[in-house]
Fold DNA (cytosine-5-)-methyltransferase.
Amino acid sequence: MIVLDLFAGPGGWSHALAVLGVRDIGLEWDEWACKTRAAQGQLTVRTDVAMYPVWPFLGKTTGLIASPPCQAWSMAGKRLGLLDQPLVHQAVADLSTGRDTREQLLASCRDERSLLAAEPMRYLHALNQHGQPEWVAMEEVPDVLPLWRQYAAILRSWGYSVWTGILNAADYGVPQTRRRAILLASRTRTAEPPPPTHAKAAEPESLFGPGRAQWVSMAEALGWGATDRPVPTVCAGGGPGGGPEPFPSGSRKTLTDARDRGAWKPQRSLVLQSRGEGAGGIARHGARENRPAGTPAPTLAGEVPRWSWSLRSNNQANATVRRADQPAGTLFFGHRANECVWVAEPAPGGTDEERPAPESIRITAQEAGLLQTFPADYRWAGNKGQQFSQIGNAVPPRLAAHLLAPHLGKTLSPDDFTLAA
């Protein structure tokens, strides 16, 4: 039996299934997402989902997953998909009866990607003739919820139990307040959202059992140490980590640029004291990327932290800015205006008027991947832009695992997703 993953991307759903002991077959068009999937050993057919035939999966598909490209609907884009909504709804209605009017409707769409949100219905209609799939899981940006409700009405008429709604990824241990429209459907069980495991504030234990844990912060996810005053360490060109800022503003930018070119070489030796190494342990200043996975970020011994760090989602006036001891806002990438950067502010009790604030620093792909709950050793293919595009468009695997576990008869363990490891 097959779990079919439409618009599989770099493997957010696939990694979640792997954690749960299941493999899927992903259909994906993007070259670099396919290469990323291949690097993880995920099964992939490189194809246009809108052109690929359904017949190879008939009678063989137990689960269908779909996260259609969201650029046409996303707040980060031009949102022409919202103007195309009537056409998409018409396509879904037609496909649910076996009528393929996509070509005519596409000619009227303002964004050619809009109709991709109707593609899952083409597969669902064909599979339904064989009494399949057993379950369905779909995810998109919040504005797609009305479309998911249309899908829900059709699936209910076919005998499915269906739930649709908006879920916040932070409520499931993702260090990011990423809100997504979700559809869950099943032929064999009552479809309902998974119980949240986390809350904005930690909940005390009660007669009903332990309360929910506090939302996971960026600092915790990145292994900086979940403190109320996270501070940076410059490592191989300006990476925030945990410690005072030893370089002035101009040096920081120079080091960052050199790191990006792969040309950075240490100019001075700094002995750092790691919070996790005990009183006698020391670690030499070096590349952030080479710090052992899972170890606390180092801090200069005896120094008072001077800077605390926040993540800014883009350079627009209304950009989301979150402190490192909070979850990130929704990560999205795609063009220069949407680059996430770390920005520094004087830490409480650690200001130094003569010391200039460090420059802002672009988030790295590994950091962005960790904030999406991909493992630190996930192998991203492509250049920086291609990697960030994949990461920003992926479903967080930790959220995906919570959505899928009930359909697979699995129970998630707190250790199934180890942060900063």
The mean pLDDT is 79. The first strand starts at residue 2 and ends at 6. Residues 16 and 401 are 5 Å apart (CA to CA).
